[in-house]
Amino acid sequence: MEKRKKKPVKASMGGNGTVSSASPSHAFLLHLICGLGLASSFWVANNVYSVNLITNPSQTLRLIWVIEAPIVILLYSLFRKNPDQCSYLKAVGRSMLVLPAGAVVNALGAIALGAPVGIQYFLRTLNWSLLMSLLTFVPAATVFGSSWTDWRRLFAHSKPIGSIDYMICLPAHGAVIGAWFGAWPMPLDWERPWQEWPISVSYGAMAGYLVAMVASFGFVLWHGDRQHVKGD
Amino acid sequence: MGPAEWWSRGEKRPFSLFLLIAGLHFVAILLFTRGFLLTRTELPHYSNCSDVSRSPCVPPTQFNQTNRNPLCWTKPAVDRLVIIVLDALRFDFVAPSTFFEERKPWMDKLQVLHKLASRPGSSARIFKAIADPPTTSLQRLKGLTTGGLPTFIDVGNSFGGSAIVEDNLVHQLVQNGKRVAMMGDDTWLQVFPHHFNKSYPFPSFNVKDLDTVDNGCIKHLLPALYEEDWDVLIAHFLGVDHAGHIFGVDSIPMIEKLEQYNAILEKVIEPLESQSGPGGLHENTLLLVMGDHGQTLNGDHGGGTAEEVETSIFALSLKKPPSSVALELDTSSCQLDLDGRKMCISSIQQLDFAVTVSALLGVPFPFGSIGLVNPELYAVAAGTWNLESSNVDSCQKQSNLEKWLQNYVNVLCINSWQVKRYIDVYSTSSVIGFSNEDLLHVSDMYTQAEENWLHTKKELMLHENESCHISLPTLKRQIDAYFKFLASAAELARSKWTEFNLKMMGIGFGIMLISLFIHFLAIKRIDKLFGVSVPSSCNSGISFWLIFAYIVVALRACSFLSNSYILEEGKAASFLLATTGILNLRYSIMKKKMLLEAMVFLLLISIVRFTIELGLSKRAFSSVLSNICPSWMLGIANGCPVWEYVAEIVPILALFLLAFMLYKSIARSSCQGFLKYVIIGTMFSYMLIAVYWALESNVLSLPLVLGGIKRNFIPRIIYAIGFVQLLSLALVQFFNEERSSDWEEGIVIKTVAMLSAWSSTIIILSGKQGPLVAFASVVGGWCITRSESLELDTKKWNSRILTFYSFPVTQWSLLAVCLFFCTGHWCAFDGLRYAAAFIGFDEFILIPQAVLLTIDTFGFSHILPIFGLPFIVACQYSFGQAEQRKRFFFMHLSQVYLMYGLIMATTMTFTILCVTIQRRHLMVWGLFAPKFVFDVVGLTLTDILICFASLYYFG
């Protein structure tokens, strides 16, 4: 799947700035709200606009990312690194910038893997990749900004340290891996409407994202416990 | 014991190991194939009129001296024949609904047939015809006309076309002066390209079009019924088949189609009946309305379920038979239809069609037919002789029935003799004949029947005065004896040709598994040896890369269990390859280098992916389009002149680029005198290819200076150069003691020489896309070897080689698979680029063209990747003490070859598993079996090439 490749930004900040940490309850709340955000966007799509992913994939995907984006950006901005040097607004601003950039990366990755290309697919791919960007890159951008070392640690080495790292890294990986698996049923000849691009892939991504959020919460709990033990 | 010692002990060990594995694969495949693929040899023999004198039977001339034409095998019963084929005609479309448990909306639509068949004293009859799977139109046409059983591979000279070369009904008709007219499905013209007097073919490939073929048929069929210029008329309607494919059986378009057919049949029967009076055009005409196969409720066909194999034949003789005959031979079942009319339906094997129609028309039976003359279908028309005119003299008393039976016995006698002759000839001339006891059993029956008949005839001679005819019971006994023989002969043929031998398949699969196990053990062992030999061996455990390589191979292998993934194999392979590419990119970001290589690799995969899709979409148009534009680039180039120029120029530029790369590679290496000349030879070949294409192209419109010969001249020179290069490389291998000083570079240049020797031939065969694909594979290979050396720095050289090479080798094999698909091939026989076989040749010569076709098909996907594998080892090998290095190097190289072989063998094993599981699947002959054949050829080629490569590189 579209693995991470980030634009090499001048790494102005060192990797070891003050790492704000999140307590398990914070992590739980954050993940819960993100999850509820996804769920409510589905609900809104179904009941307010009466569209769903299968019949109107691009509208639904747009609705999902439009509803989910403020939740993710505003929540993760609370956990931004170096809160003294970086205002809340700045964190929100940079995440807004990364959203389209991350979408381009996701879209390129999907195309390399075989996503269909064409005018009729343009809107779907656009909305899908914006959603993917929201699930993968935007939290990292909100929290770490352009700190290249942190990006590398999270996405290339996949070695999170600390609770915030888990909260960013695991859901992002979960979404990507879920999307990868979501692509497998597409060539089957079952002729179901959900086998169209990018429906099954979106389902996979969101399922992976949700599962990874649970896992991330578990890690944060475990991590917190360990810290607690260490403290003793 | 160090690896050096181990290696020097078994200098020839890798080769013998490869040979062992190849042998195991070969045995496994052979056993499996014998159980799975139904092979039958097509015999080139044809029946002739005069053959019948060699039979022990009474030639018909004895019965009938008054006929104006010289008689052939049987006495003709009908003069003209109208065959209306309704494609995919289910049995329940024709038979009245009372024959079935439940009345469905699509039943009882062909009312006109019911009416005719139930008319009292009518000479019309409905038959349930049982086809042999595979129930595809082409195979069924073959079966209907040859009277033989279908097989997956008809070994014979059917190379490059689907024309029927075996003896068949249409050939016999033409041979015996019958004029055959055809209209409708153009498949008939494919299989009988030169047989028809008149033909109105319509394209059959557009499934969505329900009407073109049918309307064309109607337009030509109705006027033709008033004409005299044909003896046999074939009209093939496709609407029902297409309606089934698109809408299914239970749909409005299907019912509309059936109603339309009912109207058409009424319109056909009306002029036939109106002209059937004495002296009329259709005085002695037989009308057959038949399906070639059935279909499932979804409109699929191809498999062997009852719905697909059960179709129907409706026969109507326009001459009223004087009396109904042969009731005892009747196998029919009778029911009242909806209107309370009594209707009888008989059953016939489709196998029997060819020989029955031959007997009715009085032409020799097709040589390879194993059917029997069906008594009921024969009776529909053969009751219609003017019985008074023959045998007038002595036997007035003889009843019509007896006369009919006597004639039928004689026909059966000829029939039996012909089947016996075929079985005898087949078992002597075919590689895989019948077993001796089976043959003995069958010929016993034949002799018995024959002796019985001779005896009866002798009796007849003796008692000529008392009774001039044979008694009814004797005749029936005789018929029974012949039936028994014919049934057992067909049984034998069927068991030999259409049934899977599960035991054999199981053994083959078992051996394949064993070979996989040995393969794996060998890899493990070399790995261990190496691990032991290196002092500071720190076991890094199972690495991520190794696991990932396993997963990729396993995923790809498992994907073969579904027909969808086999159809989209190219896409699945490029998906996996892109995944590995993305992981590489991630890794290179982690290591902060080789970013460019990783990016280029991803870009390359994206391009490859698009070309694969182009190939897939071309496949949808089937062979029709690929005949018109053999290379996909020309397909794009149509229309815009600028693109046309680009399409001409770019391949030539790419050729120059490749030549330049070769030049650089020899310029960089120090000397290697002889190999240098080999590579220079290739550069010369490239120039020749460029000249060849420039001459061919119509854009440049160069004057044709060299005349006609030059077209074939240049390719042949290129083949010759390639051959000489390979030969000299092999010779150098034997005679040239290589110096041990710069062997590393030597290996590289040896690899380059080998690849370049093959490349020119492969490129010219692949057409204009050739140099681009070659360039892509060079770039791909370079990226893989480069990004592999990323790992090297971190893991150091003491890591296990299994861990180390598994990932790049997997990538390498995936790239090879992608190249297969992006050169416009796919795993089906229409995926072969037959045009490639005729580059440099105008006429058909089997062996060179088979070789060329193999090189074209497997060049980019097997030959080049396998000979290129040393790059994976050589490009990053730069450690260890000098004297150990060489040993290690060869160990690594053999490990890499083992891995590559293992990957190929794993996919093959899963293909075998897949065809075993899916052997009764609908698409087994359309999809799984071709895939299996391609994999078999691919694996065999891989084994052979690995053996050669080990001889060449290990020296």
TrEMBL record, chain A:
GO terms for biological process: GPI anchor biosynthetic process. It is a multi-pass membrane protein. Pathway: Glycolipid biosynthesis; glycosylphosphatidylinositol-anchor biosynthesis. The chain crosses the membrane at residues 28-49, 61-79, 99-122, 128-151, 163-183, 203-222. The keyword Transmembrane applies. GO terms for cellular component: endoplasmic reticulum membrane. This is GPI biosynthesis protein Pig-F. The keyword Transmembrane helix applies. Its main location: endoplasmic reticulum. Keywords: Endoplasmic reticulum, GPI-anchor biosynthesis, Membrane, Transmembrane, Transmembrane helix. It is found in: Endoplasmic reticulum membrane.
TrEMBL record, chain B:
It is found in: Endoplasmic reticulum membrane. Keywords: Endoplasmic reticulum, Glycoprotein, GPI-anchor biosynthesis, Membrane, Transferase, Transmembrane, Transmembrane helix. GO terms for molecular function: mannose-ethanolamine phosphotransferase activity. SUPFAM superfamilies: Alkaline phosphatase-like. It is a multi-pass membrane protein. Belongs to the PIGG/PIGN/PIGO family. PIGO subfamily. This is Uncharacterized protein. Pathway: Glycolipid biosynthesis; glycosylphosphatidylinositol-anchor biosynthesis. The chain crosses the membrane at residues 15-37, 504-522, 594-612, 642-662, 674-693, 713-735, 747-767, 802-822, 834-852, 858-877, 897-920, 932-954. GO terms for cellular component: endoplasmic reticulum membrane. One of its GO terms (biological process) is GPI anchor biosynthetic process.
